[in-house]
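re: the backbone from monday

yeah here it is again, tokenized this time
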């Protein structure tokens, strides 16, 4: 590999691939290859970026140093395992897979491979998240006891007939699509405890109705399409260190939208609002007179997607596994998602440590 100009390939040449390419064009990399089952997608990618295109992942692996997997969830495993077995570096879009079993096979392949691997859970690289993680590690919040996590849209359900609304392809709905980001960020800001128990409910209240407004529909609806996934979920889960987590996630909900995480400790706390970009620290004191204080944190402007990519490229150049966004951490997130779905089906809490 040319350490200075790594050759990058993509599996899946749709909109997400192009989003990643747009960021990578600012880096010293070569957009070398792409794989897609759709001939028109391959032709367009080759025309736009001068990349060699293939129908087969193995063939692509012969001409790249790293590959981004940006396919629908059900196809993550085949592509990721093939890439790792070829000892090509892997950047896997979230979630790790469409099922826990598939995610476990990817994790096993990553453990057996000499290549680095990273999962694109980019919110950890938000400027406010970086500050809060550093403050937690410094002990500013004391012992973190609870984390509140929300990723709630007022409206924003993918169109019926897209792969997002088909459980066999997506693996789930709002929980596995956007809840994955919320769970990951919450666990990250709590220091990644092992989750031992989950209680949750996943519901479908809006997606297959024609009598409710949806101003922000994603994609083109198919009147004969399938909608057999959740459009919201609520959950409570607990770490092995006693830290608890509450989760609200929705593609659609009759409430104010939110995308935030609140960390509560015995010495202080904080809220990161990803929608507004505001980060607030909550503390108290007794100097002068008993008081509480709120401090607004301002950080340098930063594109979290691009920062996540840069961390991957740094690992690629050094050969060192990135410490953040590891496959094992993404597997923990997948275990929580699976636990919420199982808890919802059983109408009872489920243990993850048995």
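seq for it, each position gets an aa:
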């Amino acid at each position: 590999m040319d350490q200075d100009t790594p050759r990058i390939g993509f599996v899946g040449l749709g909109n997400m691939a192009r989003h990643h390419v747009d960021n990578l064009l600012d880096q010293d990399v070569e957009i070398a290859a792409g794989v897609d089952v759709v001939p028109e997608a391959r032709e367009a990618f080759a025309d736009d970026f001068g990349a060699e295109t293939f129908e087969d992942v193995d063939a692509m692996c012969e001409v790249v140093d790293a590959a981004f997997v940006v396919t629908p969830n059900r196809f993550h495993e085949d592509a990721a395992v093939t890439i790792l077995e070829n000892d090509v570096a892997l950047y896997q879009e979230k979630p790790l897979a469409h099922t826990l079993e598939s995610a476990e096979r990817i994790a096993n392949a990553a453990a057996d491979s000499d290549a680095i691997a990273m999962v694109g859970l980019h919110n950890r690289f938000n400027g406010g998240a970086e500050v809060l993680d550093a403050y937690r590690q410094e002990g500013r919040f004391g012992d973190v006891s609870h984390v509140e996590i929300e990723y709630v849209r007022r409206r924003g359900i993918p169109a019926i007939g897209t792969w997002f609304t088909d459980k066999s392809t997506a693996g789930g709905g709002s929980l596995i699509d956007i809840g994955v980001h919320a769970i990951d960020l919450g666990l990250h800001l709590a220091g990644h405890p092992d989750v031992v128990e989950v209680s949750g409910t996943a519901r479908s209240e809006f997606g297959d109705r024609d009598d409710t407004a949806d101003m922000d529909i994603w994609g083109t609806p198919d009147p004969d399409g399938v909608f057999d996934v959740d459009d919201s979920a609520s959950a409570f889960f607990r770490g092995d260190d006693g830290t608890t987590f509450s989760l609200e996630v929705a593609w659609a909900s009759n409430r104010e939208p939110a995308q935030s995480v609140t960390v509560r400790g015995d010495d202080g706390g904080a809220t990161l609002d990803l929608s507004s970009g505001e980060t607030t620290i909550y503390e108290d004191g007794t100097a002068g007179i008993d008081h509480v204080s709120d401090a607004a944190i301002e950080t340098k402007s930063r594109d979290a997607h691009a920062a996540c990519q840069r961390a991957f490229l740094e690992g690629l150049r050094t050969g060192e596994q990135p410490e953040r966004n590891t496959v094992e951490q993404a597997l923990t997130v997948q275990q929580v998602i699976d636990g919420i779905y199982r808890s919802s089906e059983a109408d009872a809490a489920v243990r993850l440590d048995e």
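The chain has ten helices and 15 strands. The longest helix spans residues 327-346.
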